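Components:
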Amino acid sequence: MLDIQLLRNDLDGTAARLAARGYTLDTARFQTLEAERKQLQTRTQELQAKRNASSKQIGMAKAKGEDVSAIMAEIATLGDELKVAETALEALQAPLNTLLMFIPNLPHESVPAGKSDADNVEISRVGTPRAFDFVVKDHVDVGAALGLDFETATKLAGARFSLLRGGLARLHRALAQFMLDTHTGAHGYTEVYVPYLVNSDSMRGTGQLPKFEEDLFHVPRTDAEKLYLIPTAEVPLTNMVRDEIVAREQLPLQFVAHTPCFRSEAGSYGRDTRGMIRQHQFDKVELVQLVEPAQSYATLETLTGHAEAILQALGLPYRKMLLCGGDMGFSAAKTYDLEVWLPAQNTYREISSCSNFEAFQTRRMQARFRNDKNKPELLHSVNGSGLAVGRTLVAILENHQQADGSVALPAALWPYMGGVQVLQPAC
RNA sequence: GGAGAGAUGGCCGAGUGGUCGAAGGUACUCCCCUGCUAAGGGAGCGUAGGGUUUAUAGCCUUACCGAGGGUUCGAAUCCCUCUCUCUCCGCCA
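Structure:
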């Protein structure tokens, strides 16, 4: 959520910055609603002030045993007038809030203009794609002999689910363990175990609601509010500080969690239908930091580096992309995507997305710290995948496959695999 | 699932219809005193909005005592619904 003051003070400037990411702000509508809001709110507050003053008078008069019928008569119709004004104000604030909640974040000045991923800028390229002296198989074919089973998953749940057996299931677990240990041990994050179902306040806090409800799975309940399956651990991790004022000495907060993620993938029919690139359920190790505003862009760089460290340790070639305005997520001010090399697709595919949200999420959440003037100030939130476990597994199968159908595991994983260095077919 | 108790400011804790945004304590900030990491004295100290303003200063004002409704001229206080916490019983990975 943007600061509404920004819209009031510099509507055209804000609209121009939003245009850079392909969003057209309805400035006329905003101005109309704002003008009406101002008038109605002033009127309402005047009436409330009058009521408060009169009630106070009545209280004082009664305490002295005086007659209050004169004052009572004076404000006889006040209640009705107030009700009308309050109702009108409320009715106006709803669309105004909705408008505000649907406006995406402003792109940082360093974000390139552009409409789609074609306009993203490559920042760096690490590792060299391997030259194969045999016909490269994709992860579905490599995995088939190792325990990757889509038929059974489909029987159990439907399309866009996968099932792993044996060494492959262990590899999946090993990857998550390795990532967690690296981030807690080498990068200073605190491991957190979180709920996988969260309430709507949490979803609103990080920006999934109200705009992206159709992308989420939810669980209805009879008596209580429905719960949503998390699409990323970003939601619970960031919302940990919702409605909190964090002591400055505790900053930066660095959290890491390994969780399943659930996405309905509405609107992506026909895209990535083969394999486990795009699933309704996948595991991810997520990094979240909550920092002082002045630090957040430096944090974005280091956090992205933390995700890169995993790719490097696993010997996976990748490139780092700076997303253009039009390709960024709704809540982000600046995003780097890390794209891993997939030889079978002969291309780089997203495996991590690292973003600075500035105060966009924390404003919704009222997540603050006490600044050097001892005043509450909004934190900045920065997060990134470190990494998507399923896609990392895919990348390992494809990049480290061997002619005989086996897969050579990176040394970093050996301790997590009980010493197994190669996954052999026909497990 | 059954029975009961509770939810107040950073924390503790008073307050059951009226000058309550809320006593007191504690923490924190500033000042004084004290010759020394203690004690004492004084002052200040909630959040989010709106109006005014060059102003994130000041002034005026609104809302907020778990959440949402209701009663009333007036609600932290009364009524209803919900959420959460605690205690006891039952069940249970």
